[in-house]
């Protein structure tokens, strides 16, 4: 059974860096053809795709967030991490990690973690 769990601070100040970690169990993030994504949902809005890191370590970022986003991984801990720089209140959202991405729709999701950007 694949399980994903997000962790990180729930409150970030404007202009700082948001950093979240997704811990995966029940599957290896290096297994061929698996993609591991970050997705967010701002309050009152729909889901917004942020990007993914593939089994190979390659990454993809949404063009609207690419300049501020970095996704990395720690294979020894079976974790992948989102960093979003120079945050503003518009980055306030529930952030989810998920298995899937690219041509593969996410089929396993973490429960999500609320991140609020406020001074």
What would a concise description of this structure say?
It is globular and about 40 Å long.
Structure, described:
With 119 residues, this protein is mostly beta strands. The protein is 0% helix and 54% strand. It has no helices and eleven strands. It has strands at residues 3-7, 11-12, 18-25, 35-41, 48-54, 59-61, 69-74, 79-84, 93-101, 104-109, 113-117. Strands 2, 4, 5, 6, 9, 10 and 11 form a seven-stranded mixed β-sheet that branches. It is globular.
Tag the structure with descriptive keywords.
mainly beta, 7-stranded mixed beta sheet, 4-stranded antiparallel beta sheet, globular, 0% helix, single chain, 119 residues
- Sketch the topology as an H/E string, one letter per element: EEEEEEEEEEE
Which structural class do the helices and strands define? mainly beta
The main β sheet shows up as:
7 strands, mixed
Distance between the termini: 39 Å
Helix count from the secondary structure assignment: 0
Proportion of strand residues: over 45%
Number of strands: 11
The helix fraction, in percent, is under 10%
Using the alpha-carbon principal axes, give the shape. Answer: globular
Report mean pLDDT, rounded to a whole number.
96
Low-confidence runs (pLDDT<50, min 5 residues)? none
**Radius of gyration in whole Å, from Cα?**
13 Å
